[in-house]
Design brief:
Blueprint: H1 2-17, E1 31-38, E2 53-59, H2 67-72, E3 76-78, E4 89-95, E5 101-103, E6 105-111, E7 118-123, E8 125-126, E9 129-133, E10 136-138, E11 143-145, E12 148-150
Parallel strand pairs: 1-11, 1-12
Antiparallel strand pairs: 1-4, 2-3, 2-6, 5-10, 6-7, 8-9
Length: 162
């Protein structure tokens, strides 16, 4: 019995010196954040029953070949929860968990049907041209700001339409 007490007494300082898994402080996280601005405020939104969820998705590839597949295979990052609906503007934040990375396509997307039915609603792009998405070279511990305009009455080209 004494032998076990001595072993435990020797192991306690060793175990206490081992660091646990601590969360990364907010200022060291790699983030893309910004504002989604909606054209014509709340009047531009589709009918309530035709928009079920709203997210911002950051794709590593442009054009994405398989939206759902890219997300499942870790080729995209997205806002964790659905963003608020029927607002004038919305703040968003996406954590990039494996920097450095290049984000080639940052898009606001909404689900209008099943889990597989999504449409692009706005693209982070050059001079308002959604066919020219801006890339973001993401470095570890850096926070990037990217605002995206959404006009539900004039949607950008959808994946597969390029």
């Amino acid at each position: 019995m004494k032998k076990y007490i001595i072993i435990i007494a020797l192991l306690i300082p060793i175990l206490q010196s081992c660091g646990g898994l601590e969360p990364i402080p907010a200022e060291q996280k790699t983030l893309i954040k910004g504002t989604i601005l909606f054209v014509d405020d709340k009047d531009n939104w589709p009918p309530q029953d035709s928009i079920l969820s709203l997210k911002v998705i950051a794709f590593k590839n442009y054009p994405p070949t398989d939206l759902i597949g890219d997300i499942i295979n870790g080729l995209a990052y997205y806002t964790a929860d659905s963003l608020p609906l029927f607002q004038k503007s919305i703040q968003y934040q996406i954590e990039i968990t494996d920097p450095p990375q290049t984000i080639e396509y940052l898009v606001v997307a909404y689900r209008y049907g099943t889990m597989f039915e999504w449409k692009a609603a706005g693209v982070y792009c050059l001079e308002g041209d959604p066919r020219k998405p801006l890339k973001i070279a993401v470095e570890k511990g850096t926070q990037y700001t990217a605002s995206i305009n959404v006009d539900f009455k004039h949607l950008p080209p959808q994946p597969g339409e390029w």
